[in-house]
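Case study.
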Amino acid sequence: MANKSLEICFSPAIFEAHADKEAIVVVVDILRATSSICTAFANGVSEIIPVNSVNDAREMKNKGYLLAAERDGFVLDFADFGNSPFNFTSEKVRGRTVAYSTTNGTGMMKMAAVSHDVVIGSYLNFTSLCNWLIKQDRKVLIVCSGWKQRFSLEDTLCAGAIAEKLINEGGFTSVCDSVHASLDLWKVAKSDILGYVEKAAQRSRLRDKGLDDCIPYCHTFDITDIIPVLRNGRLTAL
Amino acid sequence: MANKSLEICFSPAIFEAHADKEAIVVVVDILRATSSICTAFANGVSEIIPVNSVNDAREMKNKGYLLAAERDGFVLDFADFGNSPFNFTSEKVRGRTVAYSTTNGTGMMKMAAVSHDVVIGSYLNFTSLCNWLIKQDRKVLIVCSGWKQRFSLEDTLCAGAIAEKLINEGGFTSVCDSVHASLDLWKVAKSDILGYVEKAAQRSRLRDKGLDDCIPYCHTFDITDIIPVLRNGRLTAL
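After joint prediction, the assembly is written out as follows.
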């Protein structure tokens, strides 16, 4: 059990300081990328191809892929739809391969690809994800996607929730200050997650754009058992 | 009062996302750089010249400067002394110019020099610093030096303490998630700061090297009124 160490990285900008090719990386981007990805798999998507740049997204569209793409909350004009989890309906995505590009989350996935495995975390697949992580005898690094390199409360809370379960039920240990901070913030927030998230900056950004209808949904535990995993540049169900 | 906004940056790696040439930057590196700098000024140092690289530190020593320099907690062999605040005694530093190079804090100071002003924050000059910040009609950005780009608890707690005072007594407001997190962690920790800091990774690093004797001192409020400020690459008393 010596490998069951746990770290949390608060920003893609800090990833290099935590990077470890032996670790399993859990990418968290609660509002909204990783919640949308879990929804897509729950609704039967075949594969999701994370795409970094707007140009790459356009190229995937030209190649005939279904394209979900947004920047700063706005749908790219040539995309089929944007980043709300409510877009990834069974009617749209079942059996399809979707190309996907977002402001923060998809870039983080590609950066993390140096790791042993990269999996997608959210409240929506929380218990299944934690139970799988506990079964691996391997270091876990939870990476919060944040907002344009900045720390984000909503990602940190989910990281704290995962950390709590891994430590309490999985025998994980940590000497990482980010883990202690996330655990304490989760303890403060967990009796009223949605109330706490009211003060998150991303909450305000989404409200300003009329995109905040998905927030309660994105904080719902366990709508799916599927753990999306990044293999050869594509997300598939583990 | 529209300018009284407040941000906290959790790592030098995230500084670019927060950088604002109109802001006053408060650099915090509680264990130990900014505590040592405040101690040096309390003991009558004339100026401190932050130096980034080991080579630059050696060059300053060769030029005849008194040199305080460490890496990873160890004194550089050609330095006069290391980074403990207890080194910066009145006998050694009064009236002198000291060249100073540390693992985290001094690099952060040079990076922040693009800002309107860069001042040094610690518990040791807490009240004087906060009262001065409150008098300025200007955005404040508190930068936690952390450890090799990583988030650090002890810096975050001090940032939270400063934030609490600026918001409660100075009319500052914030939409920055790092501020909300720091405030909540400070609330959790403030009734027993030293007990809370026991779990900080830097606490363990210092203990492992026998350097933890300074930790209670570094969490003492208000031993000095002096606010060190960076002007033309040199720290002087404001």
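Observations recorded in class. The mean pLDDT of chain B is 93. Residues 32 and 84 of chain B are 7 Å apart (CA to CA). We will return to this complex in the next lecture.
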